[in-house]
Amino acid sequence: MKTQVCIIGGGPSGLMLSQLLHLKGIDTIVLERQSREYVLGRIRAGVLEHGFAALMREAQCGERMDKEGEIHDGFIIAHDGKMDRVDLHKYSGGSSVVVYGQTELTRDLYEARDRMKGIVIHNAEDVQPHDLKSANPYVTYRSGDEVVRIDCDFVIGADGFHGVSRKSIPRDVLKEYEKVYPFGWLGVLSRTKPVSPELIYAKHERGFALCSLRSQVLSRYYIQVPLTDTVEDWSDEAFWAELKRRLPAEVAAQLITGASIEKSIAPLRSFVAEPMRYGNLFLAGDAAHIVPPTGARGLNSAASDIYYLYHAMVAHYKDGDSTGLDKYSEKALARVWKAQRFSWWMTTMLHTFPDSIAYDQKLQDTDLAYLFSSEKALGSLAENYVGLPF
Ligand code: FAD
Ligand code: DHB
What we know:
alpha+beta
């Protein structure tokens, strides 16, 4: 097989790039290790910045998001018995975020790829990129007993944190920066009315909690748990009881509980791999960087990589201008590191660290006190949360 751009990974990053390039007449093949049902069964991001939403529209995939997604102009931080609101609209100069689940937007992207007869190969085993430094790279995968070869101009590594692409870059070229947090988030999805129309981030001595949502009938809640906990340790009853303990009493009293329809634990990690280009391989999204979910930056950071790559590829193929490709890694990393800083800061301010000393706790309190006493601090939070410009 032959294509112009071979994309490894059929998550939001890979599908979005494939769709955008297709609309500009650039040929792609997407290789996804899992089945479509598996990919659509993963419950992940819920909060999209406007840059992401704009990219969905440009990819002709924004119709359902615009109809069913909710615009959120603010969120609440509950701490020390108080409920302080961050007015995103006011402090970001009129911007907001869109609450629309990653599962739904991935479904929309798959449907668009099907509609346009885009090639997405599922259950592709042993995917391996080759000859990345040459002008003729290729990717192989196994389908049953058959090994298939795809010749291409470029390989895109959009295969998430555990993918094969980043691992194809030699050790002496790749530099990895990593910070692992001593806790995870236990998430529950339930078919219940959300406890609050806006998200509530709750700082509590027992641990952080987040009340989020997917729609007015679908709630998503998270609690901070030790890394040693497993999903089996948490019955639905135990989860709801612990969530209530960490929420302000008036919120806990309003919480409608129900059977969980999904329950999973995600460890928290900050990670960046540099550079994001090796020869004709370009990394994008979680394949190159991970943030703890606290600032809702992960998928949104993937979107800016895709935006840069998309424009760079179009300039290369349509105008013979490769400057965008040459500058991709540097440009993408500049924004990636800002998302890293913001996510680390939100995480540090709102979580309970097992080894923290009294001094650290005083600083956490002061961080929040400063935030809600300074319009400039709120402005900084708001501009990062709604998304820095691409
Ligand atoms: P992925 O979604 O990981 O997709 C990669 C794909 O590649 C997968 O489908 C995988 O099966 C496939 N793959 C892997 N290896 C191979 C291989 N060898 N060959 C072929 N295919 C392969 N972000 C936000 O912006 N806002 C939020 O509110 C938010 N909330 C989150 C909450 C949680 C609990 C978690 C865990 C994450 C959250 N995120 C959030 C982060 C967001 O989900 C990720 O950043 C996003 O999924 C990245 O998309 P991606 O396409 O780059 O990678
Ligand atoms: C979700 C929402 C967030 O704001 C966040 O920071 C992390 C996750 C969610 O709804 O899944």
